[in-house]
Predict the structure.
Amino acid sequence: MRWAGALGLTAAAVLAGAPVAGLPPVGAPPLTVGDLEFSGHDRVAHLDAYEQPMTAVGYVDGAGAYVRVPLAHTGGGGPVTVSAVDPFPELLGMVEVEAVAGLPVTLAAGEEATIVVRTRFTNCRYYTERAVNHFLGAEVTIDAPGGQRDVTLTYPSEVVLRSPTILGCPDRVMDRSARQRLLARDE
């Protein structure tokens, strides 16, 4: 009888979306993302000596880079189809996604895929020389049982992009407030 009561409480917790030891959170996709790999851009450093490892990317106005986004299906649940990936999900950030290759991709348990994203460094004009974009994860659109949804997959190490000095950003404006960024977006 006690066992049935505990099972009932566990089932109620799962239905309510509460975490239960040993079970993934309700709605969590069985996907992980690895560290980003950059090519075509020589200002990238992987810094593992710190307590929290990070990947530092140097901004070069107008330069492009290919970014490899490794995805893995960790098991549990059925196949998951990834239909969109944004490795730099920030409103009006300094990196623009130009093209994505390798999508859609369907991953079954234990399978891996690498999505290649062509990016360009474009929007430094509204950022100060001290501004830093921090990227903690990729925004991924998945098609799974229950429908399509956007999820954020956390990177093993943070990606940091620092704004260039005023000489490295020819279009820099003096009023770099968030309000100005939003007005520019709506133009």
In short: The first strand starts at residue 31 and ends at 33. The radius of gyration is 20 Å. DSSP finds two helices and eleven strands in the chain.
